[in-house]
Model the fold of this input.
Amino acid sequence: MGLQSAIIDWLDARFELTDAVDAEVYRRVPNYAAATYRYLGGVAVFLVTIEFITGFLLGLYYVPDGAGNPAPAYASVVFIQQAAYLGWLIRGIHFWGANLLIAVAFLHMTFVFWNGGYRPPRELNWMVGVLVFLIIVLFSFTGSLLPWDANSYLARAREISIISGSGVLPDGVSGFIRYAVQGGPVVGPTTLLRFFMAHVFLLPGLMAVLLYVHFRLVRKQGPAEPG
Done:
């Protein structure tokens, strides 16, 4: 307890940690915002945290590529699932947490929209929230290829074909989008590496920045009143 008090006192002397925590913990939330502002948003943040932790633990064993050969990706997933200590549990939490996060984030956006959270002066925060939801979907899209099994390979190839507008957009535009996403004429080692880099580095960085902006705007503006 003495060491804990000393650490807290040291932090308080530099950026008032206790006051900042108390301001968040004991801040009053209007009754009309109980379901949308207090519960669904908090659950979404909790799930994002779980995804970051479990993703980090999975990354300790995952091997995305070996000298241009994507086979180690599948082998590392099999090792996580069957040999790593509690690997099956961590992978299951990461998988189902991602699906639950999409559902919770969608419900959160639905209730915020219902309460008029897109109207001024909160329209900027609404747009930031939409971007956060799109990044959550991209997390699911990029992460689902990483196991590199037959199901993920065929599903991502089909989805990339849809994204590129194959058969709808001109061949030049469709081909450019397809090449930019998958890094070549077909889904292969380059696609896996691009998805891995986006899933582990690019998307988490964007998520962190957008969530910071989102929280700051919510803290300043408060929840929208219904009606």
